[in-house]
Amino acid sequence: MSFLLVAGLLAPVATPARQDASPPNVLLVLADDLGYGDLGCYNDQAKAPTPRLDALAAEGMRFTDAHSPSTVCTPTRYSVLTGRMAFRTGYRGVFTGAGGPCLIEEERPTLASVLRDAGYRTACVGKWHVGMTFFDEEGVPIHRDGKEAVQRVDFSRPIAGGPLERGFDSFFGTACCPTTDWLYAWIDGDRVPVPPTGVVDKSPLPDHPYSRDCRPGRIAPDYDLERVDLEFLARSQAFLREHAAERPEQPFFLFHSMQAVHLPSFAAPEYQGRTQAGPHGDFLFEMDAVVGALLDTLEELDLAKDTLVVFTSDNGPEVASVVHMRQDHDHDGARPWRGIKRDQWEGGHRVPLIARWPERVPAGAVSPEPLCLTDLLATCARLAGASLPSAAAEDSFDMSAVLLGEPEAGGVRPFLLHQTWTNRLALREGRWKYLDHAGSGGNRYDRGPLQAFALDDGVPDAKAQLFDLDADPGETQNLVLERPEIAARLKGMLDATVAIGRSAPAH
């Protein structure tokens, strides 16, 4: 079996670019810590209204089996941009503060560089979080997390390894989590125009169960923790308007990487109290409104019909938001799945994914096709008529036929790969999901607030897990001892794709 898998993955697949339509503009909107059950179009019991995203789903295709490559942000963002699972780099964890260097290798093609080489203008607005290099006064690279590292930064020096060196023509955003980590300052291109001058003062900020994640880092005087997503929105709108005015014939790729709805839930004042679902519900409502404003801008500029819009999330919902939203508002951001952010169970990585391209992507369609966000690179390259180096995008499958609703387009992926922030791995083939570890792979369910959600899967001492998602979508019964032949086969497939270094056929 492993020999056949190796042969299949190394054999290149001919995928000539379509010539029956002009290349679309691409607007990729990546929400942060948004769960499968946080949107009304995925969860009829959701308590925070999301009318714009529900409408987007009605106008395009809604995927019900889409997955983030990882259960946390940094590895997912690496994988979205490179089409490669981040565990293959050996990196574990996430960047904070001045952490780096850039996780994306210098010569590696990215979604941005592939589209730019195909003639696209490329822009990134928002959270980067894939690492970059700040320097101290002596010009020594700072590759450390934490407040002390931020205090050493010489902000008069350009930043290396950021979006401008990984395929983007322009960038405005933040190094890491915009309202959580140790550096609260805007980066414009490769500079911090207004450096931090003080430490975050939490006293005027909202105080509620969803506000605890704001670390006491250094903050710039022009940085408003309650208006981060509105600043990102204004910058993306400015890019779209400038592009439409000055380069209307050139396609664009805009990666809008949101802060929402990562904790702390700091909705802008004009969105506070707008829902009956508390501060996090208000933040969800603001996120929906931001997406709606981006869509309205496309309409205003007559760009909507020529733009592929993809909306998705980098992983499942955060612990505190799930625990308190369940308790206080009867809202489950992971519904109907077991697990949350950091967990290998479905709730940690099964995410919303909505795609709209008028007259090309069927309106009102619902696709059960298994998909990973690594697939965005091969898919967008195909639609753009871009060439993709055969050795690149090792875990990216071309899903364009599924996206366009072509007959008999299913069955693209033979399996899905999953990883946690500690690089624990899982593999899903059809109905069968194999976790090559015990427990969630992320959160602790033997203590703290998650103890109330712990389940006995029948074999608590097993070192691996096997679930039949068709019969048991809640992953409540571990069948690893009952079906050892299936577990062994999936384990062999997982080991083989790790050893080979790819899961997708050569491009």
Protein architecture, described:
This protein is of the alpha/beta class and 507 residues long. The chain has one domain: Alkaline Phosphatase, subunit A, CATH 3.40.720. The chain contains 11 helices and 19 strands. It has helices at 2-10, 51-59, 73-82, 111-117, 147-151, 228-246, 278-300, 319-329, 375-384, 400-403, 484-500; strands at residues 25-31, 61-67, 121-127, 134-135, 141-142, 170-174, 183-184, 187-188, 198-199, 218-219, 252-257, 307-313, 350-356, 365-367, 371-372, 416-419, 425-429, 432-435, 465-468. The strands form 4 sheets. Strands 1, 2, 3, 6, 8, 11, 12, 13, 14 and 15 form a 10-stranded mixed β-sheet that branches. Strands 16-17-18-19 form a 4-stranded antiparallel β-sheet, with helices on one face. A 3-stranded mixed β-sheet has the order 7-10-9. A hairpin with a 2-residue loop joins strand 17 and strand 18. Helix 1 runs parallel beside helix 11 (484-500) and helix 6 packs parallel to helix 7. The longest helix has 23 residues, at 278-300.
